[in-house]
Design goal:
With 147 residues, the chain is of the alpha+beta class. It has five helices and four strands; from the N terminus they run H-E-E-H-E-E-H-H-H. Strands 1-2-4-3 form a four-stranded antiparallel sheet.
């Protein structure tokens, strides 16, 4: 028989290897969402892509923030925390990671739509008529898909 030692100690994720395994993809799969936003500010339209991860405790979110930067906020009404990033620079880090360690199902579809929106923004196509139409279509598709 194989004897497995049991320990009551909590293990902490090693942030040095966070990008070297599937752990984060599974965490995003369970607690994350991809958002495409269109904001109107001073008669100007601003398009954004946002990744968000929700959790009851901020410990694991701090590990993600340490790796990707971004913001950690709290929702007092829900007694929960969230990691959020709308940074274009952080998005490419997330894309490089999720292209290697994929999420599954509807989350994968949401990721693909979000990634396409990133490419539109990267190529400055969101200011052209065709790019605006594609961006709006991606946003609607992601909204229909749900959180």
């Amino acid at each position: 028989p194989i004897v497995v030692p049991v320990s009551n100690k909590l293990t902490k994720p090693n942030t040095d290897s966070l990008l070297q395994n599937y752990w984060l993809a599974g965490f995003i799969q369970a607690n994350g969402s991809f958002v495409i936003k269109t904001l109107r500010r001073l008669n100007k339209i601003e398009n954004q892509i946002v990744i968000q991860v929700n959790q009851e405790d901020d410990f694991l979110l701090k590990q993600i923030q340490h790796t990707f930067n971004g913001y950690i906020g709290s929702r007092e009404s829900c007694k929960s925390y969230y990691y959020s990033s709308r940074s274009f620079f952080n998005a490419i880090k997330v894309i490089n990671y999720l292209d290697r360690y994929q999420v599954m199902g509807a989350t994968l579809t949401a990721y693909w739509l979000w990634r396409k929106a990133y490419l539109i923004l990267q190529n400055n196509k969101n200011n052209e008529h065709a790019g605006i139409y594609k961006f709006i279509r991606l946003k609607k598709s992601l909204t229909v898909l749900g959180p």
